[in-house]
């Protein structure tokens, strides 16, 4: 037998409902019977709606808890959240969790097989700039970066390597949400730093639409608006990796003769850690084992792998594809192992404009005063002033 309930209280009410109504209206007047009918319909409607809302809540809750931003990251890749299908959040860009359970070896060998997409064919795909953030904990100046990226979804991707035990609290609507990659502890000056950089590059290479690869730290800021930076990087085939030879003990002095014959002292280069590479070079850095092994073995403090490995590698394998200069400004004017740091007091239009236009360099064969796209080292104390000055100065969307 099939019971059909019609909300308007028609003739084919189920026997159970009629029974209930009889019970409820027992001894009542005829008009009470009509009222009860309406009450009953209303009651069932309300019950149905409530159940619906509860179900939607449960689904939403499960969904959000799968995607928790401050997911604890284990030291062992095997314990990381399993690789699953990309999670799509309604109303937002298709955001994929960057977590996976590949070991470094698996990751690197998979990454080098991903061919970069060709964009000349007139397809709908758009080349992206991969922004790789290498931090110990939070991206101090993230509100600046949120403004920088705002409105340019689809033209960039972010990869974030922080200490594995660090639990960030980036909200769901942050551009940094879901951008953490499986990480390992990094010790300043050791090859663990370079390992982290290769890990970042490898993760970014997995996306065939990433064409340019920028390494940034928590103390970096952008010096121009997004489209200027994007155009600057996309309109050249050269990488921006500082690379120079210098007889000083802090440069050529760090060369270890045991590196010969694979690396001759004449090939040894020094440069800034903070690179901007094209896809071919990013792939080269991730696929190289021959030279990296030598660096791991023979370049230990006071030889710093991150200051020599990529400059030397490029000089040996891709000299013509490097501009030999960096696009990340830093102040080495004071002597010492660490560059100048800048806080609240330093943040003026004059100071920032001097970084933005204060030098000359070559770009696509032309001399330009636009040499730096990013700057470091900006302290957390600079943030408040930067938020006031920078958006107006460089033209960020409000
Ligand atoms: C990731 O883990 C799943 C299940 O634990 C396993 O089937 C898969 O092979 C792993 N993937 C990689 C790349 O290790
Ligand atoms: C980059 O190189 C390709 C061929 O290797 C060339 O077609 C393209 O025009 C170059 N792009 C720029 C901006 O020089
Ligand atoms: C290094 O290169 C120089 C000049 O190219 C050469 O004279 C020298 O023999 C090389 N050294 C080694 C160890 O190969
Ligand atoms: C950069 O240096 C290499 C040598 O390492 C040289 O071959 C190349 O022409 C230089 N690039 C530019 C743009 O000057
Ligand atoms: C850069 O070049 C311009 C024009 O040639 C010149 O006026 C300026 O002084 C140069 N700036 C520096 C820092 O050398
Ligand atoms: C270089 O300068 C020349 C002359 O000013 C200009 O025509 C050309 O477009 C410039 N090239 C680039 C890549 O900006």
UniProtKB/TrEMBL annotation:
It is found in: Membrane. It comes from the Eukaryota. InterPro entries: BC10-like, Glyco_trans_14. Residues 75-95 are annotated as: Disordered. It is a single-pass type II membrane protein. Keywords: Glycoprotein, Glycosyltransferase, Membrane, Transferase, Transmembrane, Transmembrane helix. One of its GO terms (cellular component) is membrane. GO terms for molecular function: glycosyltransferase activity. The chain crosses the membrane at residues 42-66. Signal peptide: none annotated. This is Glycosyl transferase, family 14. It comes from Trapa natans.
């Amino acid at each position: 037998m099939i019971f059909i309930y019609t909300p308007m209280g028609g003739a084919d009410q189920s026997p159970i409902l009629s029974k209930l109504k009889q019970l409820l209206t027992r001894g009542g007047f005829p008009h009470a019977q009509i009222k009860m009918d309406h009450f009953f319909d209303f009651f069932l409607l309300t019950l149905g709606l409530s159940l619906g809302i509860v179900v939607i809540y449960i689904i939403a809750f499960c969904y959000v808890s799968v995607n928790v931003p401050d997911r604890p990251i284990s030291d062992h890749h095997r314990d990381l959240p399993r690789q699953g299908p990309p999670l799509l959040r309604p109303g937002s860009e298709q955001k994929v969790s960057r977590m996976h359970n590949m070991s470094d070896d698996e990751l690197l060998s998979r990454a080098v097989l991903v061919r970069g997409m060709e964009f000349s064919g007139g397809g709908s795909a758009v080349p992206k700039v991969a922004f790789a953030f290498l931090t110990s904990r939070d991206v101090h100046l993230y509100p600046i970066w949120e403004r920088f990226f705002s409105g340019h979804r689809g033209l960039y991707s972010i990869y974030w390597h922080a200490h594995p035990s660090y639990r960030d609290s980036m909200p769901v609507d942050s551009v940094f949400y879901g951008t953490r990659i499986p990480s390992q502890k990094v010790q300043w000056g050791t090859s663990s730093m370079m390992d982290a950089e290769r890990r970042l590059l490898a993760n970014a290479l997995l996306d065939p639409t990433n064409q340019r690869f920028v390494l940034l730290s928590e103390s970096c800021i952008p010096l121009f608006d997004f489209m200027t930076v994007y155009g600057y990087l996309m309109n050249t085939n050269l990488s921006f990796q500082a690379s120079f030879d210098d007889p000083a003990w802090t440069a050529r002095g760090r060369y270890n003769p045991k590196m010969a014959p694979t690396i001759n002292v004449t090939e040894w280069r020094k440069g800034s850690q903070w690179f901007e590479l094209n896809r071919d070079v990013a792939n080269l850095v991730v696929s190289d084992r021959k030279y990296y092994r030598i660096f791991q073995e023979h370049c230990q403090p006071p030889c710093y792998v991150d200051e020599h490995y990529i400059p030397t590698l490029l000089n040996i394998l891709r000299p013509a594809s490097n501009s030999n200069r960096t696009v990340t400004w830093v102040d080495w004017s004071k002597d010492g192992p660490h560059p100048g740091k800048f806080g609240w007091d330093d943040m003026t239009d004059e100071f920032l404009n001097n970084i933005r236009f204060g030098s000359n360099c070559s770009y696509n064969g032309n001399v330009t005063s636009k040499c730096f796209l990013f700057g470091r080292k900006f302290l957390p104390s600079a943030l408040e002033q930067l938020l006031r000055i920078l958006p107006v100065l460089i033209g960020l969307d409000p």
